[in-house]
Amino acid sequence: MISFMQLRTPNTNLAFLSRTSPIPLYRIELSFPQKIFFCQAKYAESEIDGSFNVRVVSPTLVAAEKEEAKAVLTLFLKKQGLSAALAARAINRSESFIDHLVSRLHSVHKSRYLVGRELTTLEIRDALTPYLEALHEEYGSILLDVVESFPNPPVVDKIEETVEKVPLPVTPASPPSAVLESKKLKALARVSDIGPTGKLPPHILYLVELGMDIEKIRVITRRFPAFAYYSLEGKIKPVVEFLLDLGVPRSQIPTILTKRPQLCGISLSENFIPTMAFLEELGIDKEQWAKVIYRFPALPTYSRPKLKATVDFLYEMGLSSENVSKVLTRYPNIISYSVEDKLRPATKYFRSLGVDVGVLLYRSPQTFGLSIEANLKPVTEFFKDKGFSMNEVAIMVSRYGALYTFSLAKFVLKWEFFLTMGYPRSELVKFPQYFGYSLEERIKPRFAIMTDKGVRLLLNQMLSLSHDSFDKVLEKKMQKLLDN
């Protein structure tokens, strides 16, 4: 049974009704199961449970990531209509859910933690926002109660009591809202119903055989009801086989379809293949299509004018044809950034710092998707406050554009430890990548080993070398000291 609260009002935007100011309410239909399963069961593409695993992550890093998760959740709540004050109050009541979000990060990106690399702010946002959107699709207006009461189901009586205080309007329910909800319910029934043969519909069985469980398919259907009506032979199977022919591993197909179910709705011969050919002309490496589609499944669904506008901008910034190809292949998500609202304002800001925009676009295109006020300016001010000149900041950014994707909380902790290491500040200008390494899992342990051996390595050598190379360099340094 699927839990949802169906709200019908003259105003179709009723997100988080129970926490916002009174909104005229016409009708409420509440269907609530005996138990909410998402906090214990594997969810969407994350395939994690509700437990909070910190075995390989230091408490300091966990604390910083919790702040990042709070920021993502706060922004999401505000986008749903909550005021800053209400969002902050909700965050204070949602400690268990924040832990759950951090646990999700550790599971999805555990390979990054094992090599001592921390997630950037952008990576954290990209990992958590789709998950929150999927939860919102499922729980609608009771999502805030679900979040605050995690991992226990919200109290239905409390929700109903809050709703009863909202005055009833004279006008009838909004037809568009009712029609949309009806379409979702019919689509969900279509993917769940057992036929006369005692089996699920053929296209659902096919998806299950690919590795998608029913809950994943329901998540897709809630978000995109048309997915339930795609035929197996006419839509889904041809697209899947086409992706497999491109070299996409079978194990990645469920993730791709979960992220962009619309792929199954576009014609291979009229849209998909011609768009790919167009992108190859613009610079996509045709040998890398499997990786490109996995990184950004939405790419083939963008219009040609949008694709060309982004590529034209890259050329305008001075990138060569080869470098445009590499940017599109390594980070196809840049296509989703608005040229006028994101790329040009970010370009103007970086140029004001003296940064070579072409170099930065090539090395770190994801930086151009960040907010100038929320991400870029605070980091710049941090380094200026620490005594770095604008020229030094520009050099650091050019060498390591991902510098802007980390939170200030991480900068502060790593800066304070850097001051105890005895390195000149110029080492950070030469190697700003220092801020991308885990303080507890990489920086402190490596520094302690180096200090214990009585030798001194450059900051770059100390952190960027593999474990074996690091040990060998230490041995050579120690031997040289003995020889002297």
Describe this structure in words.
There is one protein chain. This protein has 484 residues and is mainly α. It has 5 domains: 57-147, no CATH class; 177-264, no CATH class; 268-329, no CATH class; 336-429, no CATH class; 436-483. The chain is built from 25 helices and 2 strands. It has helices at 59-79, 84-92, 95-108, 110-114, 121-139, 143-149, 156-164, 175-192, 202-210, 214-223, 232-246, 253-259, 268-282, 289-295, 304-316, 321-330, 339-353, 357-363, 372-385, 390-399, 408-418, 426-430, 439-453, 459-464, 467-483, and strands spanning 4-8, 27-31. A two-stranded antiparallel sheet has the order 1-2.
In short:
InterPro entries: MTERF (IPR003690), MTERF_sf (IPR038538). The protein has 484 residues and is mostly helical.
Percent of residues in helices comes to 55-70%
Q: What is the total tally of β strands?
A: 2
Element pattern in H and E: EEHHHHHHHHHHHHHHHHHHHHHHHHH
Q: What do the pLDDT scores average to?
A: 78
Shape: globular
- Measured distance between first and last alpha carbons: 76 Å
Low-confidence stretches: 1-55, 155-175
Strand content: under 5%
Which value, in Å, is the CA radius of gyration?
Answer: 25 Å
Number of helices: 25
Oligomeric grouping of the chains: single chain
Main sheet makeup: 2 strands, antiparallel
Strand order in space, largest sheet: 1-2
Domains, number: 5
The structure class reads mainly alpha
